[in-house]
Write a structure and sequence with these properties.
alpha+beta; seven-stranded antiparallel beta sheet; 4 helices
């Protein structure tokens, strides 16, 4: 079974990895919590005392989980230095990166079922096991990440002048571009337009958890299946 990976990137489009910026967890978390919210403003009509909910925005999705870092030698006899483990974890997800003047962007990935593009919003550390002299041997890191979409993509999504809506689609297992084209455009024949817009060279198998921007329909690009 593969272990959860944290990979650091220096750009919000997640194209440039940070040198030495990866961390493989020692023990996979026993629970992942993925939170989604929709915010509404309550408005009251002069004809009614009951408030109505008007859509405001959809905030960033949040992913949270706990990691156990065990340097007793029981889990991995080669990973015995707890301070070094914590330093590497902090380098990937928390420390200030002087090249980009902020902490890194991070992809949280686990096998083929999870790819979460994010930034860290919360990090707490608890030491839970010690040597007789007080040297810590085990720690628990509680992490929370917020999903991240780069400003250029957000601008496309917020383009109010487009005759058709722009959609942000999260790929799930089994999705294909013709299926997504049919879902958004009511026709499977516009899949090439979606591939070109997202700069996909290979799109026969889409990666679950990845996100695609489906632009407003341009019918001149139709490809007959």
């Amino acid at each position: 079974m593969s272990n959860l990976q944290l990979t650091a990137y220096s750009d919000g489009t997640f194209n440039t990895k940070v040198a030495g910026g990866s961390y493989e967890v020692m023990l996979n978390p026993d629970k992942l919590q993925w939170n989604r919210k929709v915010q509404y403003n309550e408005e009251t009509s002069i004809d009614s005392s009951a408030p109505s909910s008007k859509y405001n925005k959809t905030p960033s999705e949040k992913l949270s989980f706990d990691l156990v870092i065990d340097c007793t030698g029981v889990v991995n006899p080669k990973r015995l230095d707890l301070p070094s483990e914590i330093d590497q974890l902090c380098k990937v997800i928390y420390d200030y990166n002087g090249n980009i003047h902020r902490p890194n962007f991070v992809i949280v990935s686990w096998g083929g079922g999870l790819t979460f593009k994010a930034v860290l919003v919360s990090f707490s550390l608890s030491y839970t096991f010690f040597k007789p002299d007080g040297t810590p041997l085990r720690a628990k890191a509680s992490l929370e990440f917020a999903s991240y979409v780069d400003p250029a993509t957000l601008a496309k999504l917020d383009d109010k002048k487009s005759p058709d809506m722009t959609h942000l689609v999260e790929v799930v297992e089994g999705d294909t571009l013709p299926q997504i084209s049919n879902q958004i455009y009511r026709s499977p024949n516009y899949f090439v337009q979606i591939a070109q817009f997202n700069q996909l060279n290979k799109f026969r198998r889409l990666k679950p958890g990845s996100r695609l921007v489906v632009p407003p329909l341009q019918r001149e690009r139709v490809v007959n299946a």
